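One chain given next:
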Amino acid sequence: MSSDLLIAGAGIAGVAAALALSRAGARVDVFERAPQLATEGAGVQLGPNVTRILRAWGLQEALNAVAVFPEQLCAMDARDGRVVGQVDLTTAALRYGAPCVCIHRADLQALLWQAVHEAPGVQWHWGQALQSVSQAAEGVTVHSDAGQTWDADGLVIADGIGSQMRRHVLGDGAPTPTGHIALRALLPMADVPLAWRSGDVWVWMGVDFHLVHYPVRGGQWLNLVLVLNRPHTDLDPGWSLTGDADWAQRAVARSCSALRDVVGRVTEWRYWVLADRAPMASALEMAVGRVALVGDAAHPMRPYLAQGAGMAMEDAAALQAAWLTHANSGVAAAWHAMAHSRWQRVARVQQQSRRNGRIFHSAGLVRWGRNWALQTWGSHLMDPAWLYGGGPVPKP
């Protein structure tokens, strides 16, 4: 079945969905409110559940050119600088059939864009923000903020956590602030202390905060993400706003000298106030008739499992599989199948991400128990086979 589909949003979720549906034979129009492809952002971790999809799409060589393949995941106690858990990541390809990688968000966006730009049947509409959609027996009609309308057989909403389209379709209001703030920074590797110049992923767990750092862009830059507990804040809810360097330094002031040193080298952070929604309760949060929801528009999650981008990529692969299998039964049938294949796995990722946040930022006896558990079962706790070994895999 060859149908006309619309996608709202050209972030990672939207571009991946366009690539996947094009590969499945659909004709796709993508609408993005920004005037051009986004090049901002910082680092992204991709587990084997995601790199397996990229390989199936024929993007392994492009990934190799821009990604870093870490050797270890190291969990650290920020207070005293002790290693409390480690996982060997070099054997991920043997365990799960694909590697773990670290990549700059713009590089991931670019390699997906290049692949979909070469794919047939995809049209792009920049500077067009979709606001609402109406459904009928024969198709959908979408309306832009400029008063334009388009008709199609179906719609995929992929316009992020602040999606107006989701609120129009599901009527469930805005996402809820989590009480956490994320600060991001990139340091030239030449400015990083020698002890930190490694190809590994490090997670420093402190009281009311944690910091993750890893290399990106071929190891030329160090990506840092500092997440702070801030249950009461009057900061703007947007993202990529400029943060105060003193703010980050105060957060780690009682940590070990190594952590204070590297945080002190950052002169400017970009921050955003984290928000999410409750873990998904049913497939109706991902498919309503001829409308599908994917990525953060469907299931925003906390960053403590490093799967936000990963779940968006899995959604795209699931769209592809559902279209190939069910499109002859109609758009609604395809979206229904996609949603039922996804929602329980996504809900588990959302739940685990919330749990990890409480553990990462713990104090007192909980901190002691966390460290003991990681020292005893670290390789099992930090290497979730259900996550890395699962998920959809598109046909090559």
Observations:
- Residues 4-70+102-175+277-361+384-388 form a domain with the FAD/NAD(P)-binding domain fold (CATH 3.50.50.60).
- The chain is about 35% helix and 30% strand.
- The chain has a mean pLDDT of 90.
